[in-house]
Amino acid sequence: MLAIGLLIVAAAPFMVVMFTTPPTPQDDLPVGVDQIQRAPPGVVDYTNIEGGFGFSYPSTWELIGAGSSVRLESPGGDTVVSFGSVAADRLDAASEGVIEAMPGAGASQELIGTTRQRIGGAPSLLTSGTATDESGRPVRFLAIAVRGDVRNYAITIVVPAGSDPSRVLPRVERVIASFEILDDGDVIGPL
User: Which among 71, 110, 130, 139 counts the fewest CB atoms within 10 Å?
Assistant: First the structure.
């Protein structure tokens, strides 16, 4: 695997390492099928046709949602990774929209840093920060805006502020590294 980016946030330890992997062929997907198990044991490949994206995730995690937005929750629900689209022409405006939708937007939210990377082969803005979620629990987050040709995408990661990065990061990094944009010229399903 080839490392293509690294984000280290000193004030709130959160690191994302992106790896490139060979793309999964999409031409054998039946039209309208959103989820197909064809990854190694313990991993599920997910394709969201309406949202125009796909990713892989651990089979022990729960996929929640329908339509163009979905979220993953780790066993116990402590780590949440959400995927969807963002309405904005410019990547910086899309990033602002993603940040405004994060937990604690406003008063309790503290932005720590922003960096540019490529995710799913596309230019992306990654903004890290801390906040207090709806239940009053302190959290760390990473808000990712991914630029597509047809639309922009939002990926958010929320973890408890006191979580152990050595336990949380490896699986989250693999999920994010597997993200693919599918509707920017890709043909999905039989013609």
Answer: 110
Range of the domain at 131: 2-22+60-181
pLDDT beyond 90 at 98: no
**Contact by Cβ (8 Å): 56, 45:** yes
The beta strands (E) that lie in the chain are given as 2-8, 15-20, 35-36, 43-48, 53-58, 62-64, 70-73, 80-86, 110-119, 122-132, 138-146, 152-160, 180-181
If you ran DSSP here, which 8-state letter would residue 32 be given?
Answer: T
19 vs 132, which has greater pLDDT?
A: 132
The neighbour count for residue 100, using CB atoms within 10 Å, is: 11
Residue 28 lies in a domain: no
With respect to residue 91, please indicate whether it lies within any of the assigned structural domains: yes
Assess if residue 80 is contained within a domain. Answer: yes
Domain total of the chain: 1
> Over the stretch 36-77, which tens digit does the pLDDT of each residue have?
445 567 999 999 988 899 999 999 999 998 788 999 999 999
The answer to the question of residue 101 being in a domain is yes
> Residue written as tokens 């125009």?
52
Residue 6: phi and psi, rounded to 5, are -150, 135
Q: Domain of 6: which CATH number?
A: 3.40.1000
